[in-house]
Specification:
62% of the residues lie in helices and 17% in strands. By secondary structure, the chain is α+β, with helices and mostly antiparallel strands. The relative contact order is 0.18. It comes from Nonlabens ulvanivorans (Persicivirga ulvanivorans).
Length: 84
Amino acid sequence: MNSLFKALNDHTRRAILELLKENDLNAGEIANHFDISKPSISHHLDLLKQAGLVTAIKNGQYITYSINTIVMDELVQWIMKLKD
């Protein structure tokens, strides 16, 4: 759960999740939405993958990233248990 909170604790990573909520994208397509280097985007994507927030599927020379809502559902359930 620590890697999940670490991943969500960054504005850029949250913005990447917002993009992936709309469409699956490759790293280049994601990078086009930001004013930071492609290696920085790759680092953010790696942290999101480690947290289980995104999945990556290799399509030829590209990797397509998608949001993994199952992890978010588990987080919401955990928070709701704390509320009770």
